[in-house]
Amino acid sequence: MEQSKRNVKLRLLEAFAESDQEFVSGQKISEVLGCSRTAVWKHIETLRKEGYEVEAVRRMGYRLIKKPEALSAAEIQSSLSTSFMGQAVHYEKSVPSTQKIAHQLAGEGASEGTIVIADEQTEGRGRLSRVWHSPVNTGIWMSCILKPKIPLSQTPQLTLLTAVAIVQAIEETTGILPSIKWPNDILINGKKAVGILTELQAEADSVHSVIIGMGINVNQEARDFPDALKTIATSLKLEAGNDISRTSLIQAILYNLEQLYTAYLSAGFHPVKLLWESYAVSLGREIKARTLQGTIYGKALGINDEGVLLLQTADGTVEKIYSADIEL
Ligand code: BTN
């Protein structure tokens, strides 16, 4: 959408958000937008065409009754309280994968905190070349571009940091208390609701961009999951028993991500590590780690300062696990 039209929509949505579901007079809107009353009416009509339900009553003004199911950049950015995370939003209705677009934008010099978000992915990617099921209008399929000045070896820490930010945002928005399974699965009642895929643009030991992909099952019903996922995956709606606003959750994730990431850049990984450990399910338990080199059984002791999982095997050796599938 062209910048000036997007700004008008953003300001209009902010005026409705501030009114807290009350009427906003045509006069007030024309002042906020700096346009005539006739132009206000035209902007309201544009909103209606995009799926917003707006009530108009003579002498009272306009009241926002219902927002469309689809996401929008303006909606995400209205009442977003961050300074850089999500301040540039690239939204598409349907894409093969938001990761692909984020890689492209990062290569073209997109600013730190730029997010790519879609209502549907037709070729969503998971870890280990798996498919990430991303049906339309139900979940959050989002990739975020970060440009930290950190060594390559520390980039796995950002996956753990993102997991903490998402858990905090889910807690705040829904009241659900999820847990984290190393390195990047967020579980609710033992089923996966969120996956995180971290990819890099780097050379030798210099990191250009880190692309963090987040797949969050938000409003799926049980029937929306393919058979193979029905017993192992869940959605926030299934766990909370009610619809969850994807926009509010995105805003909370961006806020928490910015807070944690900024603290991490100045104070290091240790505070994030403590938070991560407080949410982790696997610590202190016997687990099975399937790595590319083979399967290792042992007790999960914790993570080290690089974010690597420490596994104590039966003979007392402590193995460092850099990448694996974990079974509890
Ligand atoms: C996992 O396997 O657990 C990670 C899943 C990551 C999925 C997200 S959805 C947004 C972004 N785009 C993708 O294609 N994948 C990630």
Query: Judging by the overall fold, what is the CATH architecture of the largest domain?
Result: 2-Layer Sandwich
Radius of gyration: 22 Å
Q: Could you name the CATH class of the largest domain?
A: Alpha Beta
Instruction: Determine the CATH superfamily of the largest domain.
Output: Bira Bifunctional Protein, Domain 2
* Strand order across the largest sheet: 3-4-5-9-8-7-6
Tell me the major beta sheet.
7 strands, mixed
Spans of at least 5 consecutive residues with low confidence: none
Class from helix and strand fractions = alpha+beta
Question: N-to-C terminal Cα separation, in Å?
Answer: 47 Å
Number of helices: 9
In percent, how helical is the residue content?
25-40%
Mean pLDDT: 93
* Total number of domains: 3
DSSP summary, beta strand count: 14
How much of the polypeptide forms β-strand, as a percent range?
A: 25-35%
Order of helices and strands: HHHEEHEHEEHEEEEHHHEEEEE
What does the secondary structure layout of this molecule look like, with pairings?
Layout: H1 3-19, H2 26-33, H3 37-49, E1 53-57, E2 61-66, H4 73-77, E3 89-95, H5 98-107, E4 115-121, E5 140-146, H6 156-174, E6 179-181, E7 185-188, E8 191-203, E9 206-216, H7 236-240, H8 246-267, H9 270-279, E10 286-291, E11 294-303, E12 309-312, E13 318-321, E14 325-327
Parallel strand pairs: 3-4
Antiparallel strand pairs: 1-2, 4-5, 5-9, 6-7, 7-8, 8-9, 10-11, 10-14, 11-12, 12-13
Helix pairs in contact: 2-3, 6-8, 6-9
The structure holds biotin (BTN).
